[in-house]
Amino acid sequence: MSETLDMQRGLLLGLSPGRRTYWMAQAVALLSLVVLVSAVPFAKVQLAKLPSFVPLYESALILNDLITAALLFGQFAITRSRAMLALASGYLFTAATAVGHLLSFPGLFASGGLLEAGPQSTAWIYMFWHAGFPLFVIAYAVLKGREEREPDRFPIHTLTRKTALGTVAAVLGAAAACVALATVGAHLLPAIMAANRYTPTMGIVAGGTWCFCVVALVVLWRSRPHLTLDIWLMVVLCVWICDVALSAVFNGGRYDLGFYAGRVFGLLGASFVLLLLLIENTVLRSRLAAARAELGRLAASNAGDRER
Predict the structure, then answer these.
(1) Among 61, 62, 259, 262, whose CB has the most other CB atoms within 10 angstroms?
(2) Which residue ranges of the chain lie beneath pLDDT 50?
(3) Is the dihedral of CA 115, 117, 123, 128 positive or negative?
(4) How far is it, in rounded angstroms, from Cα 31 to Cα 233?
(5) How far apart are CA 253 and CA 247, in angstroms?
(6) Dihedral through CA 104, CA 215, CA 69, CA 31, nearest 10?
(7) CB 131 within 8 A of CB 208
(8) Tell me, what's the pLDDT at 109?
(9) Rounded-to-integer distance, Cα 17 and Cα 107, Å
């Protein structure tokens, strides 16, 4: 497993964050908090119903999360890190549940939504979606700490392609189970929607989901030493907390200011890790190009020496 850690340190995501990274992350988190505090008093202000908003927002979010998951699975293929596998699975879970949320949303593809959705289905899928991702982050933080403390306990030869495929199947199965419970099994869940407004029970459910996000943030903060990826994951969780707060805790229902603002927060939060991965990919490609150029120069130099 020490080989895995060495490979991970060679990646930007595995580097220790510098002051600039901390400052940037703190600035984004502080800005998110300021926007949240400013928006909370107006969260219940009813706005116009924009039918195109939800499909546009969720299509972008699903694509974002799928690309992020694919890149993180690529990181897992390099590092063979269980922590990276857990995080990649988290993004895959959010993408899969977001698909269910989109298909079940009333009025988009059918008056009551697809997948045999009922009036409570979409809201419950949202709760499963936003409670699930923090659990994967907690798993990432715990596994990362164990891999660093006990590297010999996690041999990389046990993490094969079958392991990754099995994990993907399990995650998709879990997402499908959540969607099925919220649609076919909706009668087993308490009512949290009354038309487009929230019931009092929603406050309890949303508060619990919010707590999952806070706990994940605390666990990740305590899993030191921090990597660059950890810092930006904490930013993602801060934005995720703002998302849940505006779109489920402090607002009153669909199509109010909190509904729209929270989802904008969610889309922005989902983009941070993807942006970091794309930057890393660009840097690694530039390093590869420089290495190839250096090898070419050395080969030409050696050929010249032999001719002499």
Answers:
(1) 262
(2) 1-10
(3) negative
(4) 16
(5) 8
(6) 90
(7) yes
(8) 86
(9) 45
Residue 275 to residue 239: CA distance in whole angstroms: 15
Q: Which residue has the tokens 């020490």?
A: 2
- pTM metric for this prediction: 0.86
DSSP summary character for residue 193: E
Q: Tell me how far apart the 2 most distant CA atoms of the chain are, in Å.
A: 87
d(CA 155, CA 87): 19
CA distance 143 to 137: 10
CA gyration radius for the chain?
22
Task: Provide the angle, in degrees to the nearest 10, between the axes of the packed helices 82-104 and 161-183.
Answer: 30
Cis previous bond, 134, omega within 30: no
Alpha-carbon torsion (27, 33, 34, 39), positive or negative: positive
b/e map 75-110, b = 16+ CB within 10 Å: bbeebbbbbbbbbbbbbbbbbbbbbbbbbbbbebee
Q: Quote the pLDDT of residue 305.
A: 61
Can you give the pLDDT at residue 81?
Answer: 85
- Which residues are registered as beta bridge partners of 197? 194, 253
Helix and strand totals (H; E) in the chain: 9, 2
Q: What is the dihedral of CA 75, 81, 84, 90, to 10 degrees?
A: 120
The answer to whether 147 and 67 are in contact (CB under 8 A) is no
Q: In this predicted structure, what is the pLDDT of residue 116? A: 86
Count CA atoms closer than 13 A to 86's CA, side-chain side.
Answer: 18
CA atoms of 269 and 134, how far apart (whole Å): 13
- Lookup: tokens for 172: 């998709």
Element (H, E) at 197: strand 197-198
CB atoms near residue 264 (< 10 Å):
17
